[in-house]
Specification:
Structural class: mainly alpha
Helix content: over 70%
Number of strands: 0
Largest sheet: none
Number of helices: 8
Shape: globular
Strand content: under 5%
Radius of gyration: 16 Å
């Protein structure tokens, strides 16, 4: 079992609540308040989980400048009151930031019994193969 510090446990809770509020805000037709709360909780939870210094190092790497600007720009656009445009910017930035993690995630999901068989279906397989093998999503 992985041992977590108290601040990492708080961060996991904040991140979980952030994802919940983001999802719930999108389900309620892009409610500005819920999306703003979700964004703040998600980013602060990430800082608690991996630490403030590592969070800054992750977001502000030179080769991730475009992705960071889209993601944090989307957060800002949601906070000023344009939720649909902000969420689109955030999603694009999120995919650019975490594109190196997608092949690992696809490989893990393929080993799960039910989900692995779903990913092997003909129409889904080609899409998943492109995501799983490609390291550049433009």
């Amino acid at each position: 079992m992985i041992s977590l510090t108290d601040s990492q446990k708080i961060g996991m809770g904040l991140t979980g609540f952030g994802v919940f509020f983001l999802f719930f805000g999108m389900m309620l037709f892009f409610d500005k308040a819920l999306l703003a709360i979700g964004n703040i909780l998600f980013v602060s939870g990430l800082s608690f989980v991996i630490g403030l210094e590592r969070t800054f190092r992750f977001f502000f790497q030179r080769h991730k400048a475009k992705a960071t600007s889209f993601f944090l720009g989307g957060v800002f656009v949601v906070l000023i009151g344009w939720p649909i445009i902000g969420v689109v910017l955030e999603i694009y930035g999120f995919f650019l930031l975490f594109r190196g993690f997608f092949p690992v995630a696809v490989g893990f999901i393929r080993r799960i019994p039910v989900l692995g068989s779903l990913l092997s279906l003909p129409g889904i397989r080609t899409l998943v193969d492109q995501i799983g093998e490609s390291n550049t999503m433009v």
